[in-house]
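WP5 quarterly update. Target: Phosphate ABC transporter substrate-binding protein. Source organism: Inhella gelatinilytica. Length: 151 aa.
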Amino acid sequence: MNAWFSRRAWTRGLAPLMLGLLTGVAVYAESAFVVVVAKDSKAPPKLSNDEVVALFMGTAKSFPNGEKAVPIDHKAGTEGYATFYQKLNGKTEAQMKAYWSRIMFTGKGQPPQEAGDGGAVKKLIAANPNMLGYIEASLVDASVRVVAEVK
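Structure tokens (predicted):
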């Protein structure tokens, strides 16, 4: 009986779980995100995780130094969007959708503007000193400045 249970537990639960964990670890390692601003932005040199959370969750409208901050998102439904919020505040895409639905319904705010993928986000941010957004670390170049890492 124990051998049957063990084999069945492995094939029905443990094997898929292990595969998922291994796959998740690989995706996590490949998807390092950084929060960036334009190279000429007056944003502080570094932002804490709490400051980044406040800006992307709409509870802060400016950088800690008082400069206006406009967060830019990847398109909802993309891997970049889902991975960023999971790493940033542990929320799934469904939880983020519910959060913004509640905030908009009560009139307390709007979600960040969507710009598409990392390349589109970087291009938009590089041209606008008040914007900040997240991109894959591999996309960083001289047009943007990293202010935070999302681990």
